[in-house]
Automatic annotation (TrEMBL):
<protein>
    <submittedName>
        <fullName>SRPBCC domain-containing protein</fullName>
    </submittedName>
</protein>
<dbReference type="InterPro" id="IPR013538">
    <property type="entry name" value="ASHA1/2-like_C"/>
</dbReference>
<feature type="domain" description="Activator of Hsp90 ATPase homologue 1/2-like C-terminal">
    <location>
        <begin position="20"/>
        <end position="158"/>
    </location>
</feature>
<dbReference type="InterPro" id="IPR023393">
    <property type="entry name" value="START-like_dom_sf"/>
</dbReference>
<dbReference type="Pfam" id="PF08327">
    <property type="entry name" value="AHSA1"/>
</dbReference>
<comment type="similarity">
    <text>Belongs to the AHA1 family.</text>
</comment>
């Protein structure tokens, strides 16, 4: 619906995106592995969840799988969850066993969801240990990848809306 807005300041990145779907569908798309795997990776990559326990103290272990079968494993650890309002946690690269790779930046994120007239805005604020860590993530293509993933999410939400 709306383009993705990025704002980097120091070691913090703020991302804002509005989706043409009600809050309950957007929340589901962010919190259920089956739906996350349909949109989280920029094409031609795909997201493949190995395990996900969306609860405080839980985690998601997943791979970003490339067109040649290459795998980049990631871990999302969930700290706080306030249903249909926000969830926070930690995003990191790792291995398929869920061990974090400390050679790469680790992001502390807070995702907030707000519905207004059947459209939902997601505000993501991610803090890194340093400005250099944030710049490393940006140089790895995070902005482009996330923008492409959000376009995938638009399509997933459109399908969910139609089958509702």
């Amino acid at each position: 619906m709306n383009g993705t807005k990025f704002k980097a300041k120091g070691s913090e990145l703020t991302v804002t995106r509005t989706f043409n779907a009600p809050l309950d569908l957007v929340w589901k798309a962010w919190t259920e592995a089956e739906l996350l795997d349909q949109w989280w990776a920029p094409k031609p990559w795909k997201s493949v969840t190995k395990s996900m326990d969306f609860k405080e103290g839980g985690q998601r272990v997943y791979a970003m799988v490339g067109p040649e079968g290459e795998e980049h494993w990631c871990i999302t650890k969930y700290k706080t969850i306030s249903t249909h309002i926000s969830f926070s946690g930690e995003d990191a690269f790792g291995d398929k066993e869920g061990n974090i790779n400390k050679d790469f930046p680790i992001g502390q994120f807070n995702n907030r969801f707000e519905e207004n007239s059947k459209v939902t805005t997601v505000l993501i604020v991610t803090k890194y240990a340093s400005e250099e860590h944030l710049q490393q993530i940006i140089q790895m293509g995070m902005k482009e990848g996330l923008s492409m993933a959000f376009e995938n999410l638009d399509a997933v939400l459109k399908n969910l809306n139609q089958s509702k």
